[in-house]
Amino acid sequence: MELRALCGALYWLVLPLSLLAACVFRFNALSLVYLLYLLLLPWFLGPTEHTIKGHTGRLLQALLGTSILFLTAHLVFQICLYTVPDLSQLLGQNCSTWETLARHIGVTRLDLNDIPNSVRLVAPDLGILLVSAVCLGLGRRLVPKDSAAARVRRLQSLEPLEQEEEDLERPAGQGAAEEVGSAKRKGLLAATLRVRAHWLLLAVGKCLVILLLALAGIALPSAFSSVYYLLFVGICTWWACHFPISHVGFNTLCIMVGVFAAGHLLCIYSYQAPFIQGLFPPASIWARVFGLKAFILPLNCTNPHALLLDTSHPWPVYMNPGVLLLLYFTVASLLKLRKLDSSERDKAEASAVVASEPQDELVELESWPREGAHLAEDTERMLSPDTEASTADTENCTVHVIGPVSKKPERRRQRLPLHALGHVIMNQSYVCALIAMMVWSITYHSWLTFVLLLWACLIWIVRSRHHFAMLCSPFLLLYGLALCSLQYVWGMDLEPELPTRVGFMSLEQLGLVRTKYPCLDLGAKLLYTLTFWLLLRQFVQEKLLKCRRPPAPLLEVTVSDAEPGRPRSVLKFLGELLTDLYAKYWIYVCAGMFIVVSFAGRLVVYKIVYMLLFLLCLIVFQVYYSLWRKLLKGFWWLVVAYTMLVLIAVYTFQFEDFPMYWRNLTGLTDQQLGDLGLEQFSVSELFSSILIPGFFLLACILQLHYFHRPFMRITDLEHVAPPETRSLPAPRCEEARGSHLLPHAEEEAEPGDSDSASEVVPSKWGLVLERLVVLGWTFSDILTRGQVFVRRLLELHILKLVALYTVWVALQEVSVMNFLLVALWAFALPYCRFRHMASCLCTIWVCIIIVCKMLYQLKAVDPREYSSNCTQPQLNDTNLLGSEVKNSTLYQGPVDPANWFGIRKGFPNLGYIQNHLLVLMLLVFEAIVYRRQEYYRKQYQLVLPATQTLFEEASREHLDRSLVSCAKYFINYFYYKFGLEVCFLMTVNVIGQRMNFMVILHGCWLVVILTRRRRAAIARLWPKYCLFLALFLLYQYLLCVGIPPALCIDYPWRWSRSIPMNSALIKWMYLPDFYMAPNSTNLISDFLLLLCASQQWQVFAAERTEEWLRAAGENTDQLELARGRPNPVPNFINCRSYLDMLKVVVFRYYFWLVLVVVFITGATRISIFGLGYLLACFYLLLFGTAMLRKPVKARLMLWDCLILYNVTVIISKNMLSLLSCVFVQQMQSNFCWVIQLFSLVCTVKGYYDPKEMGKDQDCLLPMEEAGIIWDSICFFFLLLQRRVFLSYYFLHVMTELQASALQASRGFALYKARTLKSMRSHRHAEEKSLAQLKRQMERIRAKQEKYHLGQRRSDSAEAPDEDQPVLHSGEYFLFESDSEEEEEASLEEQKPAKQSAFQLAYQAWVTNTKSALKERQRQDQEDAESPAGDDGDGDVCEAQVPEEPEDQEEEDTERSNMVQRALNMVRFLWVLCQAMVDGLTQWLHAFTKEHRDMSTVLWVERYVLTQKLCQGDEVHSGVLDDLYQPAPGDETGLQAASTVDSHNSMASSGCDGGDLLSSGAEGTDDTTSPLTTGYHSEEQIMALGSQEDVEQIQGSQELLVYPRNRIRTASELLSNRQKYFQELEESEQFYQSQNRFLKLLLALYHFVAAHSELLCYFIIILNNMVSASIISLFLPILVFLWAMLSIPRPSKRFWMTAIVFTEVVVVVKYLFQFGFFPWNSYSSLVRNDAKPFFPPRILGLEKTDRYLKFDLVQLMALFFHRSLLLCYGLWDHKEDAFAKWKREAERGEEEKREAEAAEPAAELPPVLDRGDGAELPAANGTEAEVVAAGLELEPQLQEKGAGEGQKGSHLRFRKKKEKRRWTKKWKVAATVAGTWAGGSGGASTVPTGGH
Length: 1891
What we know:
Helix 22 runs antiparallel to helix 23 (625-653), helix 30 packs antiparallel against helix 31 (835-855) and helix 36 (999-1012) runs antiparallel to helix 44. The chain has 74 helices and 4 strands. The strands form 2 sheets. It has a two-stranded antiparallel ribbon. A two-stranded antiparallel ribbon has the order 3-4.
């Protein structure tokens, strides 16, 4: 097979190219022979084992022999030439007769001096020899070498095998039948594929032949080429007339074309010979008529062998032979294909008589694509029902029989998509023909084509245009062919012979002129004529169908949907979709064409009329929609008629003498005619001038005739159709089953096979198609939802966009006409009822402006005729400088009065009118949006939303559900909630943008509004503010317009030099001036402020409506909740979702971010204003926590003061801009300290040159420190924090802070309990070890005595064995005893821990990554399957999983390829990274376990306190008692501690719980009393029993039952925790559900929080290292000498000292940054730059750029540590915060308890029964123990910070009284203890218990 393909490639590709090269590179008789071989080659079959023995082999042999003969001739001739002397003389010179003859023959003298040409003359023969020899050799190898007898023997040996295969293939039951059916189907499919491919080749071949005929005819128009042209025209006309053509006729035609093309090629090739050119010179008439061109230049006698190409011909001349050769080869190949097709068909028909049923199917499949089978398709009517065929007269007609009528019933086949598309094109062929007529006439301007234009216009305006076009189709075709033929004649090279004028008319006016490339013009015209052929064919088809259709009988007419149960095809669905799109959007194309027609080229009158019609249409659409719909059809007819008139006028004006006719008829000059649009254009301008109106006419006609009716249907707001229920476009049966190749498979099946046919399963391609359909609908749904969203968004904001852009255009072009636009929108925004009227008036006024601007561009309007020339004033009569006078508008040149009105001469026109045109488009688009939404709501029966929102489902009740719902809510109601703050920010933006005199009024209004404070008061003032903004905007715009410059009157402040006003002051005052006009674009910020204020006015009105209150919530600043009233918003402090985390950031920590911004605002600029920011920031940092706990009024009072200071700074800087912008030179020269004190610099460009002002180095302007950017940012943050204070959410934060204040000393108690527990555990461990050692010694002593007793007994008995002494030698057996630890400890086999990252890496290093991953997966499966804490199951699972042998792993590793190894490595690295993260997280958790336990206890207790505070209940320590009561049956703390989950220690800061088993072995408290939580110092439970009892139970398990009483630690409290809260559990689950990387971040935070004091130490020392100075040295000394020596941690006093000292350092450094200090001057700084002992540098007071960076970091670290201490109850430990709450509840019980405590003083102390009847008194140290117990609990009494919450002051007043009461109690306890000790006389007695 490969050899055959190689041989075919050589034969069909290499050999023809070699022959072609031999003909092209050498022109002589020898090459002519090769050309004959080339022409013979396509008629022979390719080389096969059969054809190589026949004609093909003989052809190759002949070619080989010819090449050998030619080479021999060359060789012999050259030998004779050099051996026979007379032969060279006989040939003569180069141009002699014999030499010329030899050169024509091809055997000539070779010049050894010209090697390239010599090689060119001989190489073709040698190349043909080699190629033909290789082809012949390879072809003969295709023939088998064995003999016929051997082939017979091989066939006989294969017969038994074939018999066996046939036996095996016989059907045996149902399975065999299915196999046979499958084989039949596969064979049928293969046959069908072969037939389809053959039919496709035939079809493509036919089309290619016809196309090449056209190209051959038009490439070089001549007499020879006219044959191809006429054949092409005849074939196309024959096809259009629906005439049949037989198989023999088509073959004959092809043979004729092939023979003629071959002869034509031979003629062209022969003409290259000099002899033929001498007979028929190239310039002769015959050579030009027949198209004979000389490609080779005439011979040169000096170099006769040179081959020179004539490059003077155009490129079609060189293309013509190639097209002819390609046509020749295509015709020959097509004939061979058709011959093969006819032979196969004959064989199939002959075998159909005796063939079986499958053969019948195969024959039928092979014959179905014949041309006759398409009769029904070709004649099937594709016209719509409303065509005029029914009204046509029924005339007699001849029916041409196209093909034989089949006896079988015709099958109705589904059309392929291309067939359906072709029928659609044929059905609309008249549209294509009319378009082609118009384009033809526009492309080629002449009187003959003008007929086509008139003809097309006439057909377009006729009512029954389809029928009329059909009737005109024969005449159109004849006229088109006539035009093409005339062009063909004039395209021949007969220019001297053809006439140029006929009578008085030039033939050029008729289009009869020869162009440079006639083939292009002929090709385009034939392409236009193709539409006429299609139109004629459609006309003939309709006639034939009408004649063949029998008369229909009268039947009952039923109207139904076209087979509603049948799904639509995909192609039909796409067609309907495309039609709907055109109907909806084609009108936008027409509108765009209006603009293109109006502004293409120079503006003339007819284009202005176009724009006027367009503007009138838009005005009516905007103002009166129903009238617009009624007039729309008439409008299109008017546009069409006007366009035809314009097109005809411009078309005819281009002909000769027509300008003279127009001048004589109208009396207008050429300039006036040019303004009308009548002028003669050049060729390129003519094309665009006619083409654009022509296409516009076409677009309007299409809209009128095809899309107007559906457009009117979809824009009818009165009769809105309901939405259609769409049906999925299902694929056809063939598409679903993938049976395109088997179109008749089902129909040819037998009736008995109907069940099997009905069970056809769709193929995979059908399923893919259905899936694509579903995906398409899904995408359509998404697109529809997106459109609904965008339309709703536009409906809400399109008016604002229109107003904003309109005012922006008016500000860009300041004029009187644009003032009306600004005035309309300035009043329409605040007063909503005028908005629609403003839109309509703006539309009308913009249209007037556009028309005026267009009319002003006409050449007839000359501004020079009426412009004003103002006289320049004397220098004493004006305060303008000399350079300023020349740049003034009055004196620059002539002043056009129209400029003041907004009209001027401008080019390009579209760029000049573009802005107002876009305004008009936006206004119309606004109306479209509103009406589209109205249509949509009527269509779906929706109601207009009560609120102006995007997401109707998102309201206030959905705000707290999720982040998505929160985002939707704020998208809906952001301006409703924060509109007032946005207005304030816009006011500050206006001040910052302009910084002139006018914005002082804005600042005053801002102060007035802010001082109102109450929202209701601001709402009452707001309408006046909006009115002021509107009037103030119009006033400033009038200042920009100024007085008309044409009056030549300057402004009063320019009248005299004595007036002290320069240009900078005039600019700052915002006064009009002809030299420096006010910057109008700055007013856009004023308009934005007006827009925001207008919207806020609507918000104030909406706040009083019930719909807005229900949907968006209330905007109130009354947040004082009544006692017992719950907070309406949920608690978010305990984060249960990401939304809660965001709320915590905003409402809890945003305050501190605001303070950072305030600090940066003050620190970035060195000024007196910045110092105020710093002081305010430091005050709030110190007392901010206390302020946050204050009531709302107290907080807002302080915060409003800060906001007013910020606004005061902004206004002050604006007022100081007068000094910094206008008088900057005077200030820099005389008052530099003012510049440095207030940081004065002008932030508005245009007042002075910064380079000139920067020359004075000692008084540089602080460029980077000026402006109000940071003031504005600070203002934004302050306003947002004020809204945070006014939120109900902040009440939760306030309650949380109050609860934290009640826990200010709780951390100390837990920390001390942990310390005591650690000490006691160490003591217990030592006592236990000592007791165990004593017991071991007693046992050794007992064993020794027993051994010695046995030794004495053994002396009287027999001697022991020899092994006995050996066994007991050394008496080591005395120490052989059971381990005490093994008897007491209950060792449980725990589950092996999970592999760490290092273990996993080591395992991968030892084995491989794949084994490590498998082991990791096995461990993960075991962890997932086995329950937590069940070690036995884990062992079982581990035992059940078999380990893979190492050999198998190695084998798998060897088999895996490199890609798999790389993937395994990537997976292993990912798993290793996860293991490292998990390991690091676990290590951090273990390292911070105690800290997390403490935070968990505080978190739970804080939650309980918060709930009590929210409910308004009395808060005392008893509320926490129920939290830690043990469950019934809980005997030991160890048992409870072992059941605590690791996640119970999650604190509000994100702390995570840990394992609590470490506290179990250290003893457990007596949990019978709930008062051991650390809040009650007097309620301690004393230890039971005497000293001896304690000694007896030391080291045993009884220590767990009888513990010494102490405060319980955090882990023990968690182990005894009884109550669980759902909110806290959900929070824990939320944190546990986070990914491992977030858990690692949380663990790192816990690590930093647990050691935050170390972080502070590090930053303090680092700050001193970076900015070492005397002022920064004090704090590191305090760290080393105070903080690090404090046990266990520094006190509150140290941290307050560090914070205050840092703030003082910052303030001092800030003060010394001012430039007016002598050491901060530029010269001093430069002089001392390299001096390390510069005094300010040593003191730390040097002026630098980064003087506060590390101080800010240090300050933030200190406050961070302070917040952690406050959060964890480690900040204050002076007084019990619950004293106040407790005193009121227990005052009566305390007095009774004191009275009862004095009675036991006179009695004997109670004793304890030791167990043996003896009683032991208490020890002498009882008093000390009692006092120690009291002292131990003294740190519990803490002061909770005076003023915490509303009741903090009450605690402050009771502090001393509470302390005296506790001191009295301690003295009473000491007295009682001393009485007991004195009465016992040294005996030790212990009280039985205590409260």
